[in-house]
Amino acid sequence: MSGTPRFSVVTITRNNLAGVQSTWRSVAEQDCRDFEWVVVDGASTDGTVAWLDELTDARIAARSAPDEGIYDAMNKGLARAVGQIVVFMNAGDRFANATTLSEVDADQHTRHWPWAFGRMDIVNDKGVVIDSNGTSPFRSQQLRLGMQSIGHQAAFFTRDLVNAVGAFHPEFGIEADQEWMQRAARIHPPAFLNKGLAVAAAGGVSFGGDPCAFVDAAQHMRRAHQDPFGGSWAIDGLVTSLLRLRKRAGYSLWRLRRGSEG
Questions:
Q1: Which of 2, 102, 218, 238 is deepest in the core (most CB within 10 A)?
Q2: 245-260: per-residue pLDDT in tens?
Q3: Rounded to an integer, what distance in angstroms lies between the CA atom of residue 207 and that of residue 82?
Q4: What range does the domain containing 50 cover?
C-alpha cells in the first residue's frame, strides 16, 4: 500500500489459526478502510503461516519468526507499524463492531487526543459477556494502584505518543501493557470513549488468574520506578495489603453472582 495509513492494527499470534482468522474478519469488515494489518507470527506450526501467505490484501504486512514472548512480539509489531494511530488487536480479539475504527477516527479528529481508551468486553466460549474493563474515565491513581486496568485492545495511540513512550518492558510479564500505559499517562492522560471498542475471549494470559494480579503487578511497577504510594514503602505495603483484600472480596462476590446467574 502507498502513503501512511490512518490506523495500524497490530496482531501477534502463535499457533492460533482460528483466533487470527477471527481477528482478520473483524479488521476486514471495518467501514474505515484506511488501515494496515501488521501480523507478527511466532513461527506457528498449525497452518497460520500458510493461511497468511494466501491472503492477497495489500494492507496486510505479515512476518513469521521465533520471538521471546508476547511483549517481544508486540515490540516487533510496534517497530513495524507506520500508521498514524496504533492499536493492538491480538489473535482472537476483535473490534466491538464494524464502525469502531471510523468512530475512533472521528473522535480523534474532534478532540485531538494523543491516546484514548474505551470499554473492552470479555466473553466466554459462548460469546456471553462475563466482565468488562475500561468502563469509567481515567484516574491515574487507580491505574497506579492496580485498581483500574485498560485493555490494550480498546486503547488507541497516536504515532507521536508511541514514539515518546518507547518499547514495552517484557520484564513486567503479562502486565507490561499496563506499565506501558502508565508511562503514556505520565506524558498525557488518555481521553475516554464511553462505548465498547473491543471484545476479548476469557482464558487469555491476562484473564482468569489471580484476582490480585493487577494489584501485585502495580506494586512491582512502583518499586521499579521508585515511586512508593504515599511517599513511603510502609504506607505502600499497607495500602497494597488492603487493596488485595478488597480485590479478593470483590472477586468472591463476582463468582457468587455468576454462579447464581448460571
A1: 218
A2: 887 777 677 667 666 6
A3: 30
A4: 7-207
Least confident of 40-54, 162-176, 228-242: 228-242
Mean pLDDT of 164-169: 97
Is the model's pLDDT at 205 over the cut of 50?
no
Q: What is the pTM of this model?
A: 0.86
CA atoms within a 13 Å half-sphere pointing along the CA-CB vector of 200: 26
The tally of domains found in the chain comes to 1
Residue 69 falls within a domain, yes or no?
Answer: yes
Spatial distance between the Cα atoms of 76 and 80, rounded to a whole number of angstroms: 6
pLDDT at 259: 66
For 65-107, give the DSSP string: ---SSHHHHHHHHHHH--SSEEEE--TT-EESSTTHHHHHHHH
Task: Return d(Cα 182, Cα 221) in angstroms, integer.
Answer: 9
pLDDT at 258: 62
Instruction: Give the CATH number, domain containing residue 19.
Output: 3.90.550.10
Q: Phi-psi category of 166—alpha, beta or left, where left has phi over 0 and alpha has psi -120 to 50?
A: left
The enclosing H or E element of 186 equals helix 176-187
All 3 cell numbers of residue 100? 469502531
- Residue 261 forms part of a structural domain: no
